[in-house]
Amino acid sequence: ENISDFSLNITDCTQVVVPEEVFFTVAAAGILENLLVLIAVIRNKNLHLPMYVFICSLAISDMLGSLYKTLENIFIILCKMGYLTRRGDFEKKLDDAMDSMFILSLLGSIFSLLAIAADRYITIFYALRYHNIMTLRRALAILAIIWTFCAGSSIAIALFSYEAATVIPFTILFPLMMFFILCLYVHMFLLARSHAKKIASLPTSTVHQRTNMKGAITLTIFLGVFLCCWAPFVLHILLARFCPHNPYCACYMSIFHVNGTLIMCNAIIDPMIFAFRSPELRSTFKKMFFCAR
Amino acid sequence: MSALRLISNRTSQQALSNSDYTWEYEYYEYGPVSFEGLKAHKYSIVIGFWVGLAVFVIFMFFVLTLLTKTGAPHQDNAEPSEKRFRMNSFVADFGRPLDSERVFSRQIAEESRSLFHFCINEVEHLDKAKQSQKGPGLESNTHFQEVPRSSGMFEEDLNCLTKFNIPNFVNTEQNSSLGEDDLLISEPPIILESKSVMQSSHRILD
Fold it and tell me: Could you list the residue ranges that cross the membrane (chain B) (predicted)?
């Protein structure tokens, strides 16, 4: 009869539930698309270039993110159906492993984007020496170092995720990397603008101002998509660590599944803005599907 | 009273199913959160976060657009000579009239790289009044990467490329200008069609 024992208010922020069909569709689409990118790059010898190696690395990390979400969903369904207990040791270890896979995906995405930006930077500012600076072997070595570091830190973060000392560097790394990538691209952008100016200053030029907008739009899309897809989750981690009992924070954390779906949407959008912009890769796709028929 | 208990039963069951759905949150031990006496709207963090993110992205877009329109004129003087040389070479390269389809491939990059090496060899051989036999060899596009690069080569590159800077050779149409999206998206920004480059280099240097 004591209603006050039920401290759950009717005005609670209940978990916003994303239907499982939506989850699985988005995750499957992300995994398929990135797998196609990988297959296309592996099959076409012309695409064995450092730039495509970094795009593949981005595709792998996107696939890991979608895979994590799929596995987690399957896990939850198994729990609901009663095949797995909720507090078992094995389940806790499995959950830790899945958490580390997710953090690996996030770190892999950030470092892949950084590698892509640095590769383009070297392409533009050291163009004549590019093929000596960025050989395929060096690109693979860089990737090996990046992924080893990401794997190590993801395991460390997953094991010690309840300490503030891991959450804070993790959340600081995210905006720092974004800022660095933004600086690289802005510098490239400025050079491209001065190029366009030089060409425009030639007597027979007819360069329009409109072409400059495309660069701004492209860059905004790159960084905007990454921010909008990953920042909600990073904020969730921060709030979960520092104010789990605050009602405002709890309301933010109730949309966790929407944030997870956003991350999977990032896995779908990334190939479109990186891989599919290359005509060579698009033609490889067409060949693959044409031959499959 | 029974109605209230029904409601509270339903919310507790919903909470149970929520905790089933999000069982891993048990580690964080989310205790019951009371929503009494909230001053602002309960989703204020959500709304504030998304509005802030949207404002930031739009701000970034406007900053980038402003960079294209006004930008820094002093940047042209402050660049080192190496960059200026490279930009001259880019201008010369991009002066080529381009077809609507641009071929980005390893062959192109290597052949354009080999174009410069071709220049370097050409400069050396012109002194000896030797015709370059390496034109057809460029199709294999592998050996010229091993031409040793040193900083002293840049002056030779410059001399070589001044031969390219013929006024009627430079034809700037809109599709031949260096679009920023090409820089940001594609491979090494030497957008040339391979055969036409070879033809033009033969034409100019013969």
Answer: 43-67
Contacts of B49 in chain A (CB under 8 A): 231-232, 235, 252
ipTM value: 0.78
Chain B residues in contact with A128 by the CB 8 A cut-off are: 86, 113, 116, 149, 157
Residue A140 has what pLDDT?
92
The tens digit of pLDDT for each residue in A136-160 reads 899 999 999 999 999 998 888 777 7
Instruction: Supply A93's token pair.
Output: 């270890």
Q: Which among A2, A24, A3 is positioned nearest to A257, based on CA atoms?
A: A24
Distance CA(A194)–CA(A213), nearest Å, equals 14
H helices within chain A, ranges in order?
20-43, 50-81, 89-125, 130-133, 136-159, 164-200, 210-242, 247-253, 256-273, 279-292
pLDDT at A92 exceeding the cut of 60: yes
How far is C-alpha B178 from the geometric centre of its chain's CA atoms?
Answer: 11
Q: What is the pLDDT of residue A208?
A: 53
Of B1, B32, B180, the CB nearest to A1: B1
Is the distance from CB of B198 to CB of B111 less than 8 angstroms? yes
For residue A52, what are the contacts with CB-CB under 8 A and spacing of at least 6?
Answer: A41, A278, A281
pTM: 0.64
Cβ within 8 Å, pair A194-B53: no
Residues of A in contact with B20 (CB under 8 A): 76, 79-80, 86
Angle, alpha carbons A270-A275-A279 (nearest 5°): 145
Cα dist. A65→A57, A107, A213 in Å? 13, 10, 32
The band of A11, judged by pLDDT with boundaries at 50, 70 and 90, is: low
- Tokens of residue A172, six digits: 């600081």
Q: CA–CA separation, B116 vs B108, rounded Å?
A: 13
Chain A residues whose beta carbon lies within 8 Å of the beta carbon of residue B94: 195, 199
How close A146 gets to chain B, by Cα (Å)?
22
What one-character DSSP code corresponds to residue B127? H
Are the C-beta atoms of A158 and A170 separated by less than 8 Å? no
